[in-house]
């Protein structure tokens, strides 16, 4: 198996790169989706969040009220750290299980694990390659406004709340510049796939 860790700031083109790699045959795991799964009703993780933050973070139907929880932790570093201490280990355990399952199913699989918080959450899976998508801040803000409907001040706050680009680049084996056109991003993803295939063939040989 060949395991790629894919990370980058908000609206930095991670999903575009992931989609392209899947088109080439990779398996895609999305940490954001896993983070939703671990807080489904009835999970130990959701129970722990309610114990920590109170019943107010639940909707009437028993599901997590993400917006309410987000309001509690967004401007409170201590609260966010307490939440992360509950959620990150659960996501790590689930992702490890899924990666192992993918390898058992196909020992030759290429798995792309898309982890926005790879640096912040200190995700330490045995990655063969860490890929970072990087776009200028103005491009990220523009995408958040145009594609996700945030107002510019909100968008800027979301970008600023994340770890800096330099810290992500420090862990990168490959940086994909996503500040230009989608075609330019795609061509870099295509070139990356060629390199991955070359590396895998060399390992087998």
TrEMBL record:
Keywords: ATP-binding, Coenzyme A biosynthesis, Cytoplasm, Kinase, Nucleotide-binding, Transferase. GO terms for biological process: coenzyme A biosynthetic process. Pathway: Cofactor biosynthesis; coenzyme A biosynthesis; CoA from (R)-pantothenate: step 5/5. GO terms for molecular function: ATP binding; dephospho-CoA kinase activity. Gene3D superfamilies: P-loop containing nucleotide triphosphate hydrolases (3.40.50.300). InterPro entries: Depp_CoAkinase, P-loop_NTPase. It catalyses: 3'-dephospho-CoA + ATP = ADP + CoA + H(+). The keyword Transferase applies. ATP binds at residues 11-16. GO terms for cellular component: cytoplasm. It is found in: Cytoplasm. Its EC number is 2.7.1.24. Its main location: cytoplasm. The keyword Transferase applies. Catalyzes the phosphorylation of the 3'-hydroxyl group of dephosphocoenzyme A to form coenzyme A. Belongs to the CoaE family. HAMAP family: Dephospho_CoA_kinase. This is Dephospho-CoA kinase. It comes from Agromyces kandeliae. The gene is coaE.
